[in-house]
Amino acid sequence: MTVHQLIFIYFAIAMTGISLLVVTRRNPVHSVLFMLVLFVHIAALYLFLNAEFLAAVQIIVYAGAIMVLFLFVIMLLNLRREETEEKFHRQWPVSAGAVAVLAVFFIMIVSKIVVLPALGEYSIDAIRSEGSIMTVGKVLFTKYLLPFEIASIILLVAIIGAIVLAKKSTNS
Amino acid sequence: MTFSLVLWTFIKVAIVVSILMLHVSYVVYFERKVIGHMQARMGPMRVGWHGLLQPIADAIKLFFKEDIMPSQADKSIFYIAPIIGVLAAIGSIAVIPMWDGFAIANINIGLLFILALSSVGSYSIILAGWASNSKYSFLGGLRSAAQVISYEIAMGLSLVGIMLLSGSANLTDIVHAQSDYWFIFTQPAAFFVFVVAIIAETNRAPFDLPEAETELVAGYATEYSGIRFGLFFMAEYAGMFIMSALAVVCFLGGWDGPDIRLLAWVPGFVWFILKVYAFIFFYFWIRATLPRYRYDQLMSLGWKLFIPLALANVVFTALLKLL
Amino acid sequence: MPGTYIPWDYVPVMIVFAFAVMIGLGALVGGLLVRPRRPYAQKLAPYESGNPPVGEPRYKFSVKFYIVAMLFVVFDVEAVFMYPWAVAFDKLGMFGFIEMMLFIFILLVGYIYVWKKGAFVWE
User: Which stretch of DSSP H or E encloses residue A157?
Assistant: First the structure.
């Protein structure tokens, strides 16, 4: 086992562990904090693929923007009540068992089917030659032109949706 | 990368971070002196010659003060919040190029790295405001969050023009791209937006609403005391240094000095530091000159003026570059 | 493939982060040894200008804050799209310019809509 693999194994285990912490915290603000740690780990994992730009975007967009929105929503909740309530239903061992069985099946299936694909056009070395941002820029604005323009429509819908929803609540 | 290289990096980091810490304590003195003289006062005079030992006295005092943990506070988040701020502020120093070929980490996404860390830094204030469980803190945290996220977009967009002109997000490349003329001359609108945005990002006057001592006591830091309060202070002043350095690197030519043969022997670092401190002086000057904005003015200014202006600058720069 | 490459460029960044955390924690833990600790109920109460605290400290705030946060997400994503475009602009040329103008135009429609709906008015 090489150092490279050890690092990867650390990230795999840590990310699973942190994800579990996110969903089991009783206080939602603690969940947000663990999610922040999780996003930093994901960003670091991108770095190990030499996808520097994606790592930065992961932090700027997910950790910097979307989590702030989450935090605003959570701040509105009445945490006093949340914290005193029962954390799980009584049936949680049943669902945990179901998840475990499904996970075993999933791993069995995945280990049978998934064959690691051949390296694509944009390997770690190819990205290194001209930099991550340049590569993304060149591919995004030529090959993936249509998805890019569709993204602007989706963002437009998001803007309008946000205003429509929020305006309704201010009028009442 | 061998062991000796890691060790060398370690030493480099230790030196740079200690200088940054020294800067943080003395820039507070510098600020008090500048503001003092602008208001026809002397500033600190008691501790040492012309108050020169004042920062050391302040640091020792903060260290020995009781650290109060409010009974209703969320303990773990109350603990972590200032550390996130310090981490984000000091972490950014890693990518700042101080002279030709010297940056602790010369990475390709240097500019985005600083943007990312500054957005993480805003958590420190939101979480501090939330965890303190006090009305003043909560208001301060909330205001800061809304303010920082509004001005972050303007800051990001104003830097797109820089990336257009230099074709890179590597801060060393950006300085090299300014060897003919500084970007402040070709991107004056972006510079204006950027300066306003970083003043808002670092929560400095006239955009210091999150701590607004005349209305919110001390805003998000109301419940913090002792060295924990000191950490917020450290984060704020280190953040000012980082943002000033970013302004120097992106708009004011970085370590590039005047083209006079007589001054050719002066190392680039001297020019860099001179420009950074000139910019920090500008920060203080603004603080002494302008009254604080009202909250609604601040928000509509950001959304209605600075974002469209930065966007127009991007379009205009791209058009010029195409022609 | 993960696990085959180590981003050595980022090792110094990690070291800086380690220093920053050490400074933060060091100040807190080091202070533990020397600072006094004499808490009592009044001292630990939330600060409210000397009065006993009244009501909930975390109350519901204006919906404007959510609008700002949501618009921030949208415009932040827009800005993120511009970074690779700006860096690769020389390679993309006229074609890339028109593409981005279309993108900005569509978002400008949304921006004007938001403005007209009065989301930027803070009363």
Answer: helix A145-171
